[in-house]
Specification:
Elements lengths: L13 H4 L2 H15 L23 E5 L12 H5 L5 E7 L6 E9 L8 H5 L5 E3 L14 E2 L1 H4 E3 L4 H10 L1
Parallel strand pairs: 1-6
Antiparallel strand pairs: 1-4, 2-3, 3-5
Amino acid sequence: MEKKIRVRHKDLTLLQKTYLPQTVKGLLQTFKQMFKPKFTMEYPEVKFEPPSSYRGRPVLVQEDDGRERCVACGLCSRVCPALAIEVRANETDLEKERYPEVFEINMLRCIFCGLCEEVCPEEAIVMSKDYELAFHHREDAIYGKDKLLVPVDKLQDRIDFIRKYK
């Protein structure tokens, strides 16, 4: 076994006790960064285009025929660490037995962890590229199905990313 050598205050040299070497190292690092090229985005005019791995606002996938993929299994609401998702199921006569009668996400609670996306067996909830979220009232932050449903063609790159790395 290796023995760790502990440097005590009394073992430091006079120069080390003044912390000058550490201060000089810090200043050198700062000066190196000062002369590197700067990267600044003019945000409101130039929008950031996130990669397909970006985890933005969670949304529900809407099929081309207008139906949502969600079968209201409730796994997303159970796995959510922030308890931000509420799902209430209802029965239907279609080939899917259930559909979400109520599907709400409280965006003030959502921590964008992506666990809901990982646990969904139908790939019905995915993390979109939306990052602009601003609310004037707390009630505006509760997104229902009307704000959550997004056509599948707008989310295809994220769905492909999920299939590739899942």
